Amino acid sequence: MSVAPPSERELEAYREQADRFNADLLQEYYLHLSGQKETLELERIYDEYRDLTELDAVKRVGAAAGEERRTRELYRFACEGFLGNLTRRQEQEIAEHEATLVAHVDGDDIPFRMLKPTIANEEDRGRRERLERARNELQEEHLTGTYLDATLIQKAEVRKLDVDTYLELYRDRFRMELESLADQCRELLDSTERLYEESADRFFRARVGAGLGEVQRWDVGRAFRAPQWDTGFPKERMLPALEGTLADLGIDLAKQENVELDVEQRPKKDPRAFCAPIEVPGRVVLVIQPIGGADDWAALFHEAGHTEHFAHTDESLALEEKRFGDNAVTEGWAALFEHLTDDTAWLTRMLSFPKPREFAAEGATRQLYIVRRYCAKLLHELEFHAADDPRPLQPRYVELLSDALKVEPSASDYLSALDSGFYVSSYLRSWALEAQLRDFLRTEFGTDWFTKRDAGSMLRELWSLGQKPTAEELLKDVTGAELHMDAVGDRVRAQIAT
Length: 498
Description:
It is a single chain. The chain is mostly helical. It is built from 23 helices and 5 strands. The strands form 2 sheets. The protein has a 3-stranded mixed β-sheet. It has a two-stranded antiparallel ribbon with strand order 1-2. α10 packs across α18, α17 crosses α18 and α18 packs antiparallel against α20.
């Protein structure tokens, strides 16, 4: 039965409520992940804004979507809100478990959220394995069942949106070109197979003393942590380096009134940096708890890229163009800043870094590992979201990721590793966007583009567009080029060869 679309006035009222819902939701996540609240009170927020996520309201917004991308983005928000409302209890339960679970390993009590950084910081390989197994056991016992409950609810209830599967919703209703991206991912996996095997073998031998045929999943975090480079990435220089980089581009971080820095140490604060764009552009919070080391620096600069993008977004843009839109755009800006921390010119200028070429080559290999992992994740998610019952696909997850990485993942992660809304596709396309934008910036402004005020002016102009253009449109407008995943392979090859 068809439903009548809302009037323009009703649609505008829906937008205003959606904006407030997002602000309140992000504020709640910020308080929880920054360690200021132990609980994550999602049910209260969903109850307050229940009119947004009721099925009739969602279908009415869908009836208004038509061919206009802006309204289609509002429809995507409505559908995700409808499904999120149905699984809010499970999401809240998962967050509470993650905040309160404790592993007992070798006489030590380690909070669940600290297990991954603890593994990465552990020198003893045997203890890393015990920590990893403890993490898996906690996940299987306390989290996997809840993830599965949420997944089964989602698979059943998505049919109320007049589609058969979650995949159909995103591919056909929201017009995400997932299959063509998957084809590019298969090509990238094939074209970088030998490069990956050779460079990853060197990478893991250099960082954890085990070749690609010997390395285990509990070694990977340690390899990414790169403790042998710690002296080059001290925690006390993280913020000054970020401030100095922004200053070179003409941005005074201390004078950005709409940017908040949360640097306070709290016991339950998430150890990794994150960005909470609570009001866009009015209040954007960059949360950090500096630890130091290459991985921590990369995380900070990644989130700083998000922060500057949202903080410079034009306030006059519509809600869909500020908060929603193509997330590959904001992830592309985040990646551009993150990869400054393995750029030879930036390392030399900002840190007087020893052996910058060696570190940059290792950074490219790390990036290749991540990109290949996400290629495999997309292939897994396409199969997963097309299946009626996801449980038999656990071995397929292990198979796909093992083939891509030559390192067997934990089977217990096959549900927790899923990115809702096919966000995996945003990451993949963002890396292609970053690689191609970086080449353009280096051509236009030189290899030290990050020191040029003109480059900063250009970035601020592009950031002001918010999420209005897609990644493909942004790249085409700036460079005239088509977005393609093979740009990532080209960038990695060039960096490894330097």
